[in-house]
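[step 3/7] fold_predict: job queued, chain A
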Amino acid sequence: MRIHGLCHCGNISFAFETKETLPTIAPRACDCSFCTMHAAQCYSDPHGSVLIDVREGTLLQRYRFGERTADFLLCRSCGAYAGAVITQGDVQRATLNLRLTPLRDVPAAPVSYRSETRDERIARRLARWTPARLVIKG
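[step 4/7] structure written:
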């Protein structure tokens, strides 16, 4: 299955490949203040792949908060939150906000990661997030 996502102005887009089918795609609604504020419904597949394309790099806002373990990708033009990327050496993984896709209405399961240590959070993201390639143009 290929899932396309796009911020409101079209500056940030992604093409997500997964072998999962619609009935098995279960986005997560994290209870942190960032995800709650953006009504994020994120999904990842460690066996899939994603190409995140940024048309104009000056309009990409990378935001880090909390443990500062990942870059949360926001569009400076329209304000949309597209997803987050963690990079360790040459390994890059992402979680994607399904609110930017046709799957925006798939119900999300509430989750909380508050009890994780910094190292546990990094390990979970590297193990569970989707192998990613981030291409920034302009």
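[step 5/7] annotate
The longest helix spans residues 118-128.
The mean pLDDT is 97.
exit 0
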